[in-house]
Design goal:
Length: 249
C-alpha cells in the first residue's frame, strides 16, 4: 500500500524533471512540453502497472510488435516519400520562422538592445541611470542624448546608442555638433557561447547552416553600407566566428 502511494507521488515529479531536462536540451515550446509530459506520465504509469503485475507484459509487447510489423511492410513506401516530406517540412519551418520573426539582443552595461531580423528595426531598454527601464523608442532626442552622456563611461553602451541614434535620428549629429568617434573593436576574448547565440538570435541547438543564415540575415540589415554601424557589424561577425569555431560537428 505504501509503495503504491509513493509511486503515485513520485511519478508526476519524475515526469516533470524528465520533461524539464528534455525541454531545456532541445528548446521545446510550451505546447510541446505539455504533450511530452502527458506521454511521459502515460509511459511511467504503464511501466509501473506492469512491474506491479497489474498489467501483463503483453500489453506493451503486443502494440510494439504490431507497429514493427507495419513499419517493415511500409518501409519501401516511406523511403520513397521521405524526400517529399523533407521538402514540405523545410518549407513549413521556413514559413513558421518568418511569421514568428527572429530577434537578436546585444546587452551592455547601460542598455539591452534588440534587433529585428526581418525589418532591421532597433529598439532597446535602458538598464541603469536616470532613465532606467525606459524604452529608447519612448524617449525624445534630448532624453536620448542625456542617456548617451550618462553611459559615456562605457564604450560598448555609447557605440550601441550611437548606432540607434544614427538609424532613428539620422540628423542628430548635425543638430548637436557631435562627431562620430573611433569605433570600438569587438573583442572576441570576452565572447561566450550564450552571448554569441543571443546576438544572432539563435537557440542552443543551432547548427552551422542556421548560424550562417542568421548572420547573413542580420548583416543585410546592419551592415554599415545599409545604415548600420561598424560596431554592430563587428559584434555580429565576432558572434558568428565564435560559434563556427567552437561548433561541435
Amino acid at each position: 500500500m505504501i509503495f503504491r502511494l509513493l509511486a503515485l507521488i513520485l511519478l508526476p515529479i519524475l515526469a516533470y524533471y524528465i520533461v524539464r531536462a528534455v525541454g531545456q536540451r532541445f528548446a521545446l515550446t510550451s505546447r510541446q512540453n505539455k504533450l511530452l509530459f502527458v506521454v511521459v506520465v502515460f509511459v511511467l504509469v504503464i511501466s509501473t502497472l506492469v512491474v506491479l503485475g497489474r498489467l501483463p507484459i503483453q500489453f506493451i509487447l503486443a502494440p510494439i510488435g504490431v507497429a514493427a510489423t507495419f513499419l517493415l511492410r511500409m518501409l519501401p513506401t516511406l523511403l520513397r516519400l521521405l524526400p517529399m516530406w523533407q521538402i514540405l517540412r523545410s518549407r513549413t519551418s521556413f514559413g513558421a520562422s518568418r511569421s514568428q520573426g527572429q530577434a537578436s539582443t546585444i546587452r551592455t552595461e547601460f542598455l539591452a538592445m534588440e534587433l529585428d531580423h526581418d525589418t532591421g528595426n532597433m529598439d532597446g531598454r535602458v538598464l541603469k541611470g536616470g532613465y532606467a527601464q525606459k524604452k529608447l523608442s519612448s524617449l525624445s532626442l534630448e532624453e536620448l542624448l542625456n542617456v548617451l552622456h550618462e553611459c559615456s563611461s562605457d564604450s560598448d553602451s555609447g557605440q550601441v546608442l550611437q548606432a540607434y541614434l544614427d538609424r532613428n535620428h539620422p540628423s542628430w549629429r548635425e543638430q548637436t555638433g557631435v562627431e562620430a568617434g573611433p569605433q570600438a573593436v569587438a573583442d572576441d576574448s570576452v565572447m561566450t557561447r550564450a552571448l554569441a547565440l543571443e546576438i544572432l538570435g539563435l537557440s542552443e541547438a543551432a547548427g552551422k547552416s542556421e548560424i550562417v543564415k542568421a548572420h547573413r540575415q542580420l548583416m543585410q540589415k546592419m551592415h554599415p553600407d545599409r545604415g548600420g554601424s561598424d560596431y554592430l557589424a563587428k559584434k555580429i561577425n565576432t558572434a558568428k566566428d565564435y560559434l563556427l569555431k567552437n561548433h561541435s560537428d
